[in-house]
Each structure stands twice: as structure tokens, then as C-alpha cells.
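Board notes (copied after class):
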Amino acid sequence: MRTLTLPLISALHMLLQAPYASSFTVNNPTRTTGMTSSSTPLATASINTSTSLSARTTSEELIPRDVLFGNPLNTSPNLSPDGKYLAYLAPSADGVLNIFVRETADENNDNAHMVTKDTSRGIRQYQWAKDGETILYMQDFEGDENFHLWAIDATATTTSEARDLTPGENVKASNLITNKRFPDEILVGTNERDETIFDMYRVQYKTGERVLDTLNPGDVLGWGTEDTTFQVREALVKSQADSSETVRVRNGIDGEDGEWRDLITFPYGENGNLVDFCNDDGKSCWMTSSMGRETTALLRVDLNTGETLETISSNDKCDVGGVVLDEDTKELRGVFYNYARTEREFLDKTLEEDYDVLFDLGPENCDVSTVSKTSDEKTWVVAYTRSDGPTEFVLYNQEEKTIKSLFVSNPALLEYKFAPMEDIRVTARDGLEMVGYLTRADTEKETPLILLVHGGPWARDGWGFNQQAQWFANRGYATLQMNYRGSTGYGKSFLHKGDGQWGVGDMQHDLTDAVQWAIDEGIADKDNICIYGGSYGGYACLAGLTFTPDLYKCGVDIVGPSNIKTLLDSIPSYWGPLRNDMLKKIGDVDADEEFNRKISPLYHVDKIQSPLLIGQGANDPRVKQAEADQIAFAMKKKGIPVEYVLYPDEGHGFARPDNRIDFNGRAEKFLAKHLGGRAEAFDGVEGATAQFPLLAEEESKVEQA
């Protein structure tokens, strides 16, 4: 079974999505010994749910920051193809996330051995190779996002050395594809030939031997393969002239079959992509498309003509979010959607029965997701996720219909009570319905509110356990997260209603309207509102303080841009093919200087009335340090309260736990000062690398005097 999660647009479009701004967000299970069970293994009974005399939604005691934002003890379990081994991420003795492996049958994690030896930011992306012995993982250098692909023997009894499969300075690897029919080779894209685009290489990962497989003609954003031949047969192309996207295919790699041809073009404003080739000798494929409708539908399309042969599934309120295929036959098994919570449409009765069993064995109000499977699909790793507690991973025996616990997410969290997350609807001033998520601090009275703005902006928030929202609730602040216009998943009109609406337009108005909704509903204290966000959310924070200065008591900006023109002038070279598309979505800041000045907070510093806290990674390749420097120093020059923390070993967010906990300690102190909430004692974090450019400038002036 193959599950494909479908982004509406290229992942590269998530320009201002902060991956590590708040915490390590891969599901956070714990390093505990599994227990055998045929019923629910979730440790809900041990959660402290005692009711206090107040209407506080979380524990009366302060939940420590290091519990909320430190490393998980175990996370991201992954079965080897034959099921013999279980890999997972866990911290080393030095507190750095590495890959550990044990035999699946040995339920004692103390017998696992650490396969990798990372000593800095930790490993977060990995998978088994199809040989069942090798692990492939991605790692960059101090947040520069030039990820290399590494291979290491996971089953050796002695320490193995990792092999860099994509070597070279400033080389970035992407588009990794594996195939069980070709267990000793992989396909991976790199930009080593041309830093702006990615060619595909065929790599023998055990030896490191590689050859150029498919040359990028200059307009391809991503590649796909046909499974039986493991040939690159699909390309997603971006037009620089009109920002349309074209699915390009070929019948083979030799002679006439090797000629690429355009299958279907999605004009700017439409969404769609090829999901996979059907198993019918090249006659048809599965595809998503919004053409002729508002949201994307799942279609079967003729591979020769591009005509729709069959419309399989659609949802009037949201786009196709995931497709489940049989890995061998390519038959459809299920389609997933997510308007506010995950919704499933099953096309295979066996799969539906498995999910029914998994829901029956789990606790109420949990979501179920499949994380990993063996090649024969008889053993699954399944995650139970809820909004008011940690995730648990279990092993599911598909034949016996039983589960066995692997890891309960962060056991320290089980000692505390957490608030449930509510999915809400807010109507914007122009009548547009928006989905949002509310985490209350108190159920009976209004409290200070933190508007937590997601990055992207072409991304979305979702339901589940959110460390930041729980942290805020425990300190006395309600948290509001909104999928404002421009967020993905809600159809093409909703997405493109955000075009040209940054800063002073409707995207920011949506946030303002959401705050007003919370005030009107008696949730938020109108005099104590904070806007807080990372990446695009950091920009929204700056825009909120400059363009609606009376609304917010304070703001926290993490890796947010302050000048949109300088932001786009400094994006990584491999995002160059997307620049024109970004200009269509943001507005043409290249040609229209007045427009750039209109939407860039840097030019409106005089309007800021409220204190601001800025956090930045010095190695950020998306939002360069200059974006934080320029607004921080401009505010200081004008005497506007601003604090600025810089981490020299971080990138687009804070991956190292010491730095993450350090910044959150500073943010907590800042929020308590300006909103009046509770705060855990803070005096810096040992091991954090925080620097203070504003203070350094003052010290330099003193020394010069």
C-alpha cells in the first residue's frame, strides 16, 4: 500500500514556512519498553486530569519548558521492509537526535544501537532503503538547508561510517525515490551541475557509484517514476512566462519513447498534479485537478490525450489531501481530505475494516495515521494523535487485528493536564469562511490572547497536539490559529484570494477579523493581544504591529522578513524558477517600488507602538539575517522597544533544543511582562548560543569611546 500526501503546490512554494521555529514537530514518542495488548495501549489513565476549582484548561502547576520543547526520547519509528528491524530517532548521550535500530521482536529499547553519529543539529529525515539493511538520511550544515543524502549500514554490529551520496560544496539533494523492484539503487535529484535546477542521478547506494539519469532542461521543478521500470517518466514544469504548470510525460527512455510530451497544463490559478501511473501498460494515470471545479478532484486520465476518463472522488469544501494506492496493482484504496479534521473515503473494504479496528482499539477523539509498513503489509506502525496529549506509536498486526505499544509520546507530558483544541469557523469581513483552531486557557472568562500565525503562507494549520498552544494556555493565554486566505487545502479561489493581499490587504484583515471574533465571543481580553509567528507568521507579526498598531499589545517575530524586495533578492538560487510565481502571489515588488514600500514593515517603523521580540538564525537561507537586522536597528534608532536574539548555529528556525528552549524562555519572560501571564524562572540555558546584536552595537560604541 502506498500513501501519497498531495501538496497543492510545490513544496518549494512554502517559502516562509518555519520548520523548527517552535519545537521538534515530528511526533514525539518516548523511549519506553513496548507492552503487548489487544486493546487500547494509550496511557490515558495516567494523565493528570484532576479538576481544580478554577476553569483552567491545563495543569495548575507550570509545565516546564524543557518538557514541552526538549528532545523526544524516541520518535519517528520506521520498520525495515522485511519487518526484522525497527529504526527510530532518539537523542544521543549528548542530547542530539540520531537514528537508533533494534530488532523488532526485541521490545527493550535499551538493546538498540545508535547507527549515526550526528553531534550538532540532529537528524530529522530518514528512511530504510529497500535492501532492508541500509538507512538513507538527509542532513544539512548548521541550518543552511543544503541537505546531503547519506547512507549507512543499519544492521552492522560494529559502528559503520556514513557515505555521502551527494557530495560537493553548496550541493542540495532532493526528490529521493526508492523502488522495491530495484532494491540496490535509488534515484535522487541534485543541483550540482546547475545550482538553480535539479537533475536526477541513479545511485548504487552501497558503493556510492552514480550516473546522471535525467538532465533538467531548465524548467522542471520535480520528477516522478513509473514503478515497474523505475524510469523517470514524469516531470512537473513551471513556465517562467505565465506561471502555469505542465505535467510532462514520456513512454520510456529510448528512441521515440524517450521524447517528452506535454500531457496537461494547469494555468496559473489552477491546481493539480500526476499522482501515479496506473498499471495498464501506459494507458492512463491517476491525477488531481481543479480545472472546471473549485477544489481538486481525483481523476483517471488518458496518458495519450490528457482527457479525463473518470472522476473518482472530490469534496466541495477542500482539496484532495492524500491518496492510498496498492503498491503493486496501483488500484485505489482510499482518498483523504482535511477541512478541519481528517476525513477518509475508502474504496477498499479491507482498508476500511483495518481503520475501523484501529479506531475501535484507540481512545476517543484521536486521529489514526499509518506511519510505516512492511513490504508484505502484515505489520504497520500506526500513530494515535490527540490534541490534549502526546502521540503514541503502536505496531498493528494486520492479520490478527491487534496492536502492541511501541512508544508513548514524551512520558513527562503524561504528568500534566492539557487543553483540548477546538476547530472553529470565523467569517471574514467579506463573508469568507475560515477554519481556525482555538486552545483556551480558561473556559469561563476572557484571557489574554496570542494570535499564532502559521508560516508559508501557502501552507495551513491543522488539528492536533501543539506544544506552543499548550505552553501559552498553561501560562494563561488563549491561542488562536487561523487558516487565512492564501492557506492551502481549501480550493483554488481561497488560495488565490490571498494574491496581492500581504500586509495591508485581506490576508492581514483576516487575522484582524479573527482577533475581533475572539473578543466578541468573550474569549480574548481586548487590551492584551499578542501576535506571534515564524517565517511568514513573523512577517504577519511585523505587519500587525505596523498596520494595525492599536490592536496588539506586543509581538514576537521569528525569522520573519521586513522588506519583501530584499527578501526575494536573497532567496536561494534553486528557488529562482519560482520567483515569477512568487511575484504573482505577493505582488510585483520588482517593478513597483511603491507597492513594496506599502507592504514592507521596514518602511513603517514609525507606526509601531508596541514592544517586539525578534528571534533569528544566522544561517537562514530563506530569510536572511539582514531582514531581522534592518528592522531591529531601525526600531532601536527611533527608541521603540525591541529585543533581538540571534543564534549563529541556526537556520530558518531553531532546531537545537538548547537554543529552542532558550528563545522560548526569553519569549515567556517577554509575554509575562506585557500580557501579565505566568512565567517559569529563566536565566539563560546552558549550551545555548544566543547573541544580542543590539547590545553588541552598544558595547562597541562604549569601547570606541
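Comment from the instructor: Residues 6-14, 19-53 have pLDDT under 50 and may be disordered. The radius of gyration is 25 Å.
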